[in-house]
């Protein structure tokens, strides 16, 4: 986001969004047996930080990643919560929890898209100007 800094690579931005989402999902599934406020807050925080930290040319990745991040975090969180005994149920229960995360996916995608568009407008591409030489041309 800072003009003097180039920003982080796309894969770092994915991790910035993914790690808090996994933490929120694991905590919510272990404590509440459902996706709740902790997962929402940490997911939106991670998506926002990723959208602000990524390089300009990788903004598209950040704008489309929230549903994939939430899906992967839900599967990983479900497996972890099942192994630790915090949740019981099979694949059908996981599918129901996935359907329940659609509003989270929608809001997170909207936040990432809005921040991405704002950055695209506020930080236009820099045009590279040709270098001016002070001496005689070297090709003559």
Task: Write the SSE topology.
Elements: H1 10-32, H2 37-53, H3 59-64, H4 66-83, H5 91-100, H6 102-122
Helix pairs in contact: 1-2, 1-4, 2-6
Please state the structural category: mainly alpha
Based on CA inertia axes, which overall geometry fits? elongated
Number of strands: 0
Describe the largest sheet. none
Stretches where pLDDT falls below 50 for ≥5 residues?
none
Number of helices: 6
Please state roughly what percent of the residues sit in beta strands, choosing from under 5%, 5-15%, 15-25%, 25-35%, 35-45% or over 45%. under 5%
Order of helices and strands: HHHHHH
Structure description:
With 140 residues, the chain is mainly α. Helix content is 68%, strand content 0%. The chain is built from six helices and no strands. The protein has helices at residues 10-32, 37-53, 59-64, 66-83, 91-100, 102-122. α1 packs across α4 (66-83) and α2 packs parallel to α6 (102-122). The longest helix is centred in the N-terminal third of the chain and has 23 residues, at 10-32. The radius of gyration is 21 Å and the shape is elongated. 31% of the residues are buried.
Short description:
The chain is an all-alpha fold and 140 residues long.
Task: Write a concise keyword list for the protein shown above.
140 residues; mainly alpha; 6 helices; 68% helix
């Amino acid at each position: 986001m800072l003009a003097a800094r180039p920003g982080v690579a796309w894969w770092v931005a994915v991790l910035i969004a993914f790690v808090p989402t996994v933490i929120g999902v694991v905590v919510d599934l272990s404590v509440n047996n459902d996706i709740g406020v902790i997962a929402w807050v940490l997911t939106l925080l991670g998506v926002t930080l990723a959208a602000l930290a990524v390089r300009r040319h990788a903004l598209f990745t950040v704008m489309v990643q929230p549903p994939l991040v939430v899906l992967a975090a839900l599967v990983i969180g479900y497996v972890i919560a099942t192994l630790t005994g915090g949740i019981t149920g099979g694949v059908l229960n996981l599918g129901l929890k996935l359907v329940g995360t659609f509003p989270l996916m929608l809001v997170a995608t909207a936040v990432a898209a809005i921040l991405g568009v704002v950055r695209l407008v506020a930080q236009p591409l820099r045009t590279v100007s040709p270098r001016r030489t002070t001496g005689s041309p070297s090709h003559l």
